[in-house]
Amino acid sequence: MKHLYLVLLLIGLVSCKKQPSKVPKTTETKEVEVVSEKQSALIEAFKYTPDQEVIISVHRGGKGLKNYPENCLETLKYINDSIPAIYEIDIAQTRDNVLVLMHDNTLERTSTGTDKLNKYTYEELQAFNLEDDYGNETTFKIPALKDVLLWAIKNNVILTLDKKRSVSFDAIVALVKQVEAEDVSIIITYDMEQATEAYKLAPNLLLSVSARNQKELDWLLHSNIPTQNMLAFTGTKLAPVEFYKTVQSHGIKTMLGTLGNLDKQAEAKGELPYTIWKDKGIDLFATDRPFEVAKVLNIKK
Predict the structure, then answer these.
(1) What is the distance between the alpha carbons of residues 288 and 280, in angstroms, rounded to a whole number?
(2) pTM here?
(3) Measured between alpha carbons, how far is 58 from 290 in angstroms, rounded to an integer?
(4) Which of 73, 77, 182, 191 is the Cys-Cys partner for 40 at CB 3.0 to 4.6 Å?
């Protein structure tokens, strides 16, 4: 996939360590160091331009795969070995404040554990194994977000970080900055309040913002968030072609959530809808069927 390769190449070229800059001495001040936050390479790489290839966003890091659970580092590695994609992952928090990957508040659906996740420390969670969507137990463990971020940095893999209610944006942004994962991290927000909070905490990061209709787009355009920091999630239903064109006219890429009903429609119609939706102006597909989308749109490594 030429476009995603160019994105990753740009990340590699732009990424650099934070460099301290010195304020000149004066007769009244001492020399101090001022550390400025570097802008994420994704802000430039994800600007909308015509004729770019579609990007696949893998919902929950991979769903519906036998022997590969959702929100699992081994699943990300498995998919990443085959197709170019970015990965949406869900962030929860343990009793001892470790950020981990988990969608549900409770452990029963996706692991051999029981009860609420936040009743356990990270070490205690390692006693449980993850299960795939068919109930098959694996040997894989609930991963720490830090480990996933470090893997993403090493392999130039882009992650979109979806916080659960028990987690603060502050905690996620702090960890991203700590491990210097700005160039592989997109923060997901769902409304103007969240978008404003996330931008205030991390004005140097790319944000996934909710723009499902013209009203929500207008809110964003009249906010203090620069359009260059926006990736527009346009919802899980199709919008008029004119709306996608309007979003793109501001330099913002469009993301359609085909996960759920639209993925089922595509499967029932021989995958043709993915091509039709692409032609309507979709730049990213957030899907539960990454391999099928890659095949029909001829997206290859």
Answers:
(1) 20
(2) 0.90
(3) 6
(4) 182
